[in-house]
Design brief:
Layout (H helix, E strand, L loop, with lengths): L6 H11 L8 E9 L2 H14 L4 E6 L6 E9 L3 H17 L3 E7 L2
Antiparallel strand pairs: 1-3, 1-4, 2-3
Length: 107
């Protein structure tokens, strides 16, 4: 498989080269960052209502005074699906003064 020449395409290319089977469902984690824990909790509450199958985890980030909301979805690591999901989560995070910080596959 070949992927577009952008960050998402690069990550998928690296995963493929490392032997990750991109034709099967994986837990894909989308990372959202917030300055306040309450902001992360508010987004998590909204997602619990709108996407009950999504697994959510809030924890302090490596950067001091920053909170992570990890949003895990079982899905095919398809380029278009990842880009669309990332954009949707980033739009929601912005409503709570947060932003997207990439994605990855739980190995």
């Amino acid at each position: 498989m070949t992927f577009p020449n952008d960050d998402t395409g690069q990550v998928l290319t690296e995963m493929q080269a490392a032997g990750v089977d991109l034709t099967i469902v994986h837990p894909v984690v989308f990372f959202q960052l917030f300055e306040q824990k309450e902001q992360a909790e508010a987004m998590a509450q909204l997602l619990k209502e709108k996407a009950p199958d999504m697994q959510l985890s809030i924890h302090p980030d490596e950067i001091p005074n920053v909170w992570d909301l990890d949003c895990t979805i079982n899905m095919l690591p398809d380029y278009d699906a990842i880009v669309a999901q990332e954009a949707q989560l980033e739009q929601i995070a912005a409503k709570f003064n947060g932003y997207n910080d990439g994605w990855g596959i739980e190995a």
